[in-house]
Amino acid sequence: MAPSPAQGNTHRVEIRGGRSGTVPFLLLTAVVAAIVCGLYYGTAATLRLQGVAALWQDGYLFHRVLVLAVTAGLVYAAYRVPYRHTYLEVEVLPTGLAITERRRWWAPGGRAVLAWDDVHAVSARTVNYRKGSEGGTVRRPVLDVYLRRKVSGLPNAARPKRVPDDEIDVEDVTAPAFRVRLGGDRKEYAEAVRKIAPMLGAVRPGIFPQGLRAEQWFVPPAADRPPEAHTEEADRPVTGPPVTVDYRASVLSQLGVVALSAAVVAGSGYLMSNPFGWGTLAAGLLALVLVVPCIGCALLFGAALWTLPRSTAPLAVRVGEGGLEFVRKKPMHLRATVTTAIEWERVQAIITRDRSDRNSVREDLKTEVVDVFLRGGDPLSGWGVPGTGLKLTCGRQERPDSTAVAERVAFPAYRLRMLSPAGPSQSGPPLRDALLGNGPRPDKVPATSLRAALYAFRPDLCHGFGDLWSGEGRSAR
User: Segment Disordered: which positions (predicted)?
Assistant: First the structure.
């Protein structure tokens, strides 16, 4: 018989050992003591040599206030040391999720159990953390426990945080929500949460997100199965000539850079020729001020003119009855392009996803992407999609990254991921109406209409596109 979650140590994971923090605390204490002694003896010496009036001198006051502010910061940092180095343990019980934090110095600790009825969902996501003095970011897995209500009595390390709407990554959780995050920026935290996730999946597999948009690093084993046949009602597909979703840079903006840089160079050259007959000193100062923008804009003019053919080369995704065509720039050519065709028979599903910005630690900076899953490990070529320009990544995905994806895609699968620029919320139906109507049929649409074009031609393959009809009562597909 399998052991109960409440028995043994198999369902108990230590996230933080609480075995460090003494050295940082002693160092901060020593620095604070040295500063306080310096302030005391410096003040005593000033009073003895110059009297009380010296304490009100501007330089003395500024220096002392600055030192006192630094001291206050160090004292607060030392005060927070035990809170950051307590022993933290998570236990998966039949009744809920137990979180234990042991007392350390003046950090009180505590223990509480999050009942399963209070837990709305557990999102296994990755979060960016700063690397500290090295700069940049590092991605770490965490477990975000979304609560149905604010739970009191939790330890300091697991205190619920009120989450705004733009940071919620689970479809069925609505703002305002409360979240307890398990994990952090250290490698040992990542190892701990990777141990906790399978335990939660064994006890409560349905507690993980069931939607499409949240990309998860852990999916319960029950979801790792062949896709089910879905009977979702789909709209009638569009027929006729393909639609070109144009990703090319605006020609007018490129010409504007060329014209502006040329105007600055011409204007600077004219003014440096001293057309007003100023004296030598005034003319020299003016030339000295203008020489830097003149040289800079001259270099910009040459670069913009040289790259103009390549920057305005065709760059698009063609969507039609037969499938998709990716038009990308050929490397080391000015305007040559390469086209890669994908027939609809090779596509399993097209799914809209939310992905957090990999370069930012802000959680509200999300990027909308479109994932095109091909059948099996069917690659487009040995090197992916040839060419450059489109924000398109390709690769083989071995396992599903959410339960809903597992129900629609058989893995392993070859995945194409494209950034989907945000467009008007009503861009879906108007494009379908234009393609199905009797009026003029658009041959080219902007990049913001990519998802609308995909849904128009193959609504049966598109999932998670319900926001195209915001406010019209449509459910997310």
Answer: 420-443
